[in-house]
Amino acid sequence: MRVTAQSQANNVIAYMQQQSSTLASVQGQLASGFRIQAPSDDPAGYAVLSGAKASSLQFATYTQTMTDATDTLNSGVSALQDVSGILSQARQLATQGADATTDATGYKAIASQVNGLISRLLTDANTAVGGKYLFGGTATDSAPFQVTATDAQGNPTAISYTGSPDRARALIGPGQTVDTRYVGSQVFQQPGADVFQTLINLRNNLTDPTLTSSQGGMSAALNQRLSDLTAAAGAVSNTTAEQSSNLATLSAVQGRVDDLKLAADAQVGTVGGTDYSSAIVKMQEQEVALQASAAVSAKLLQPNLLSFIH
Question: How much of the chain, in percent, has pLDDT values that exceed 70?
């Protein structure tokens, strides 16, 4: 095969292109921090790297889900703690009303305070975070409790649940969920422990003329309300405890997921990470080789006098 100046030049150019490609690849590794940019760089390593990256991304998703679930449950516990405070105040008012020294004016004042507690209770039961309601179960876009009847003064006499019958759950791991948004009727309107109706009944007792004129009758009625308040407080306390337990579960799982993500990220670095010392040496070698090739090609490609004569 005849070797000509043109074939020599073509070979040098091809070799320079190969060197430039290798140099660009090494520079890319240094810039990105990853030695594996494509399957061709290391087919076996690329498969392992892809799996590690997918695991890291999945763990990051679980972490975000748990963060959202924690915020939701913390807000729920806070609302329920306020409800517990409302019921405690209602007990104090009922006890005050049952006192033999309380007169009609006192009953009226206490009833007004109970109306204020009912309003606060409705606000807590309709608590929303980020526009999503906490106690409507899976129905998060509308307030779960509505006043469906009022008295002549506009005070609530009936409050109804309009949310979902199903709890909302968050996926925090493979096949593992945690309840986040509870069914309000199961929290505030359990049979025999209806928080709303208990306060409404207390207010009605305090404004009932047949009771306000009979100290004995009022005391008996308010003692019954005290019993109802105890049952309602127990129902709220149980839900608070359950949500607090869910928060503890989230904290434990979060620690485990953080460890798994750290391990996946470490594998990504080990399998696909750039060995900077080796890459720098290789880059310098390629730069020197490319410069040498450029010098050779410059001589080969110089036009000589004979090319002009012929």
Answer: 75
Q: How many domains, in total, are found in the chain?
A: 2
pTM beyond cutoff 0.70: yes
- In this predicted model, what pLDDT tens digit does every residue of 26-36 receive, in sequence order? 566 555 555 66
With H, G, I as helix, E, B as strand and everything else as coil, classify residue 183: strand
The percentage of residues in the chain with a pLDDT greater than 90, rounded to a whole number, is 62
Residue 44 forms part of a structural domain:
yes
Alpha-helical (H) ranges within the chain are: 5-32, 43-98, 104-125, 184-188, 195-207, 209-212, 215-272, 276-300, 305-309
CB under 8 Å to 128, separation ≥6 — which residues? 134, 143
Query: How crowded is residue 256: how many other Cβ atoms within 10 Å of its Cβ?
Result: 12
Q: Does 227 or 3 have the greater pLDDT score?
A: 227
> Domain range for residue 105?
77-266
Residue 32 in contact with residue 274, Cβ under 8 Å?
Answer: yes
Question: DSSP secondary-structure letter at 251?
Answer: H
Give yes or no for a contact between 250 and 69, defined as CB atoms under 8 angstroms apart.
yes
Q: How far apart are CA 52 and CA 264, in angstroms?
A: 5
Please check whether residues 110 and 189 belong to one and the same domain: yes
| 177-211 residue pLDDT tens | 999 999 999 999 999 999 999 999 999 999 999 99
Q: Which amino acid is at 29?
A: Q
Residues 226 and 93 in one domain: yes
Rounded Cα distance between 260 and 60, Å, is 10
Residue 96 lies in a domain: yes
239 and 286 share one domain: no
- What are the beta bridge partners of residue 34? 273
Q: Which DSSP category does 127 fall into?
A: -
Distance, in Å, from the CA atom of 272 to the CA atom of 37, rounded to the nearest integer, reads: 8
